[in-house]
């Protein structure tokens, strides 16, 4: 059989291939020749064939059929064969294949070989692909080589020990005695690998970490010698003595000094020396400085040293290398919470990074800029961030807008500045803001009573002819609907008022309705605003009626439903329209976790929420009733219908109930009819003179439902003579404090199978010193189980 071609010739031939198919053909032809040679047990050219096979493996072609040939080469006595065999084993074998166990004995023999280079090959192979079984079997030989005087073998044995510890952590103590002596070695290779071994042991075992903390002075001495040593051609890299060893020692010091005062104190001086003496003109010096900064920030270092570290990061921000600037921004972002004032000194440099062309640097600079915002610099920082929002790429706008909203809410110096800032964001990047931006701004505007005229005027001017920013148009429509009278009257004192007529305001809202850029939600805002203006404007009511009636046949179901309901207000309930469309009260933020008190209700322990702020008006708005339903369990509760005040005509109350009945308050689909329950007698017998109730019902004793903070509420129970399913609860509220309790409101909710009626209380003020009481009657109908009832309550007072 002719001699196979050499590796160099194979490489030259493969490189002449013009196409992938041609190269694949050459590889297949050579693989066939190699297989034939393997079958013939050709020992002469086995080494050459395995070498060619490894080259093919590097090109991505399958070479697994050469695994056993690698084992044969390892068993050979020739060094050249062993070298290729061990290289092939490291590339073609791993611990997932059982074949690798066959070489355990060969590695053990080679670890005890008389030639250091053969021992080095065995150590490299074991440290590269040794399985846990191999590591257990050969750990003793590795530990022996750690104690040898040959520095070439000691550095390879140290790296092999790192692999053994990773595979079998319980063998760590075996290497402890030998590891202590490695730091006394003068050879830098041995020092480097010993520091790697120490780092691995400290990271994996708290006991080892505590044990090796006493080596800190020795590590400090080694690092100092590296810094103070003169030029050494063997270890010099760009004028710095062995930067790789310096970086490794700094990492180990960081681990040893973490959460330890004594170790941190011992390394403070050397860290300051490294930070001040390291040359920064080359990348090598920057790498050492970066590791020094990380070490300073991670240990319990002195405050002056931390400021020095942050100043180093500040110098990194001025570097031309983008990678160094990115690393600096990332490190500053991690330290800004602990060393805020030191980072603030570099604020202008950080803001300049917002103009960088690299998007990664831009994003880190934006995040760090938001972290630096506080009450003292909020105006300047917001100015820079708003300028950034104008010019940044679309992928930054959403995060930037959210950050500006949060910072403005937290640090706003005035409500006017807060409103102006959010309006600027909506004008610039309205399409990118979060969904909660619109209700949050509406709430802010509502709560800023003195800014209503200024805000509605600014919003009116902002949307003149531009409806592209939908959130801005939604807020503007809502404000014009609420405060359109202030816009027309020109009552703004903050700036020169604009002259807008009622027709001009309606023209804007109608343009929003017909604009192709308006979303369905935006049109809903505009139609509701037009409806509200029917109670704010005096000369354009007929025009408003026409607009509303037009959208009663809209193909948009939402608009159609709104228009139909508003038409019903105009036609059937026009006398109620001013009350229903009156200006919204001051809104309060809903907190998910409020203070709770435990009260007794119907003999069961139930949580009730006490709010000390008064309700905005005598009648609770629908949203507050819905909040109560959500609080008390959601789908199992029916809405509460408060009784109309006695001063109103009876027909008005009925009309209000009819109007609200069309709104499907239970949340059921409109198309699915809800089974109707017969109307209980007490809803119709309000004017009857017939006695309906007997004495206190047997078996239902009076209870004290609430008694805390001076407020006491007692429940007494009666049954109806005409309908035994009706239970009448009379509440009596008394006040033992020194001050009167005003705006007292009592709310209740029951399961859907019940029906509930709350009569008006005798008063809304509870006199102090128990000098008087408030009484209120609650009627509960339980058609299924007259003997059982469930009631949940919410009480408000000030």
Please give a handful of descriptors for the protein shown.
elongated; AP-1 complex subunit gamma; single chain; 4-stranded mixed beta sheet; alpha+beta; 798 residues; 34 helices; golgi apparatus; cytoplasmic vesicle
**Low-confidence segments, ≥5 residues, pLDDT <50?**
591-698
The major pleated sheet works out as: 6 strands, antiparallel
What portion of the residues fall into strands of 2 or more residues? 5-15%
Radius of gyration: 41 Å
pLDDT averaged residue by residue: 80
Q: Estimate the helix proportion, in percent.
A: 40-55%
Principal-axes shape call: elongated
Secondary-structure content class: alpha+beta
Subcellular location: Cytoplasmic vesicle membrane; Endomembrane system; Golgi apparatus
Pfam families: Adaptin_N, Alpha_adaptinC2
Protein name: AP-1 complex subunit gamma
Keywords: Cytoplasmic vesicle, Golgi apparatus, Membrane, Protein transport, Transport
């Amino acid at each position: 059989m002719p001699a196979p071609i050499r590796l160099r010739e194979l490489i030259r031939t493969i490189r002449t291939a013009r196409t992938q198919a041609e190269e694949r053909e050459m590889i297949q032809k050579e693989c066939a020749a190699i297989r034939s040679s393997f079958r013939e047990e050709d020992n002469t050219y086995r080494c050459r064939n395995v070498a060619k096979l490894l080259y093919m493996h590097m090109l991505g072609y399958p070479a697994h059929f050469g695994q056993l040939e690698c084992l044969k080469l390892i068993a050979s006595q020739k060094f050249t064969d062993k070298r290729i065999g061990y290289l092939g084993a490291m590339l073609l074998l791993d611990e997932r294949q059982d074949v690798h166990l066959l070489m355990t004995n060969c590695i053990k023999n080679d670890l005890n070989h008389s030639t250091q280079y053969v021992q080095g090959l065995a150590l490299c192979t074991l440290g590269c692909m040794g399985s846990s079984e191999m590591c257990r079997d050969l750990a003793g030989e590795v530990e022996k080589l750690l104690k040898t005087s040959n520095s070439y073998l000691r550095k390879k044995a140290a790296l092999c020990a790192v692999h053994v510890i990773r595979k079998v952590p319980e063998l760590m103590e075996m290497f402890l005695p030998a590891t202590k002596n490695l730091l006394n070695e003068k050879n830098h290779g041995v020092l480097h690998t010993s520091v790697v071994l120490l780092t691995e042991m400290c990271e994996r075992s708290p006991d080892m970490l505590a044990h090796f903390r006493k080596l800190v002075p020795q590590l400090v001495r080694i690092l100092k010698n590296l810094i103070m040593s003169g030029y050494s051609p063997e270890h010099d890299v760009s004028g710095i003595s062995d930067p790789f060893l310096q970086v490794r020692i700094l990492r180990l010091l960081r681990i040893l000094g973490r959460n330890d005062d004594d170790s941190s104190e011992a390394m403070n001086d050397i860290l300051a020396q490294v930070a001040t003496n390291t040359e920064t003109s080359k990348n090598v010096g920057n790498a050492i400085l970066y590791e020094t900064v990380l070490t300073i920030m991670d240990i319990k270092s002195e405050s002056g040293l931390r400021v020095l570290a942050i100043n180093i990061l500040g110098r990194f921000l001025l570097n031309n290398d983008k990678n160094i600037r990115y690393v600096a921004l990332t490190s500053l972002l991690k330290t800004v919470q602990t060393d805020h004032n030191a980072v603030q000194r570099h604020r202008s440099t950080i803001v300049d990074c917002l103009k960088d062309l690299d998007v990664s640097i831009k994003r880190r600079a934006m995040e760090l800029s938001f972290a630096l915002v506080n009450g003292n610099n909020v105006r300047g920082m917001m100015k820079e961030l708003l300028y950034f929002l104008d010019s940044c790429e679309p992928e930054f706008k959403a995060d930037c807008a959210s950050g500006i909203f949060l910072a403005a809410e937290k640090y706003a110096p005035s409500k006017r500045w807060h409103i102006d800032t959010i309006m600027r964001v909506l004008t610039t990047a309205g399409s990118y803001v979060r969904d909660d931006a619109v209700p949050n701004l509406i709430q802010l505007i509502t709560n800023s009573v003195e800014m209503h005229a200024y805000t509605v005027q600014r919003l009116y001017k902002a949307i003149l002819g531009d409806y592209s920013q939908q959130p801005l148009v939604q807020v503007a429509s809502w404000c014009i609907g609420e405060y359109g009278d202030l816009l027309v009257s020109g009552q703004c004192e903050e700036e020169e008022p604009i002259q807008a007529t009622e027709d001009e305001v309606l023209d804007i809202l109608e343009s929003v309705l017909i604009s192709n850029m308006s979303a369905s939600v935006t049109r809903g805002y505009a139609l509701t605003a037009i409806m509200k203006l029917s109670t704010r404007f005096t000369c354009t009511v007929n025009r408003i009626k026409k607009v509303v009636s037009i959208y009663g046949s809209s193909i948009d179901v939402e608009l159609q439903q709104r228009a139909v309901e508003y038409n019903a207000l105009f036609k059937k309930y026009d006398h109620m329209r001013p009350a229903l469309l009156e200006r919204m009260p001051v809104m309060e933020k809903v907190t998910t976790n409020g203070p709770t008190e435990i009260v007794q209700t119907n003999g069961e322990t139930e949580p009730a929420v006490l709010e000390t702020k008064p309700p905005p008006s005598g009648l609770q708005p629908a949203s507050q009733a819905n909040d109560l339903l959500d609080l008390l369990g959601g789908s199992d509760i029916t809405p509460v219908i408060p009784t109309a005040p006695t001063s109103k005509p009876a027909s008005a109350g009925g009309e209000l109930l009819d109007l609200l009945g069309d709104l499907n308050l239970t949340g059921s689909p409109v198309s699915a009819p809800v089974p109707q329950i017969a109307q209980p007698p007490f809803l119709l017998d309000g004017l009857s003179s017939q006695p309906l109730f007997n004495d206190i019902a047997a078996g239902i004793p009076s209870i004290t439902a609430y008694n805390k903070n001076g407020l006491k509420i007692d429940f007494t129970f009666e049954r109806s003579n005409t309908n035994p399913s009706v239970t009448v609860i009379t509440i009596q509220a008394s006040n033992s404090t020194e001050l009167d309790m005003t705006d007292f409101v009592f709310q209740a909710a029951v399961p859907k199978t019940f029906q509930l009626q709350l009569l008006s209380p005798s008063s809304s003020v509870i006199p102090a010193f128990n000098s008087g009481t408030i009484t209120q009657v609650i009627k509960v109908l339980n058609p299924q189980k007259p003997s059982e009832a469930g009631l949940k309550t919410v009480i408000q007072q000030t």
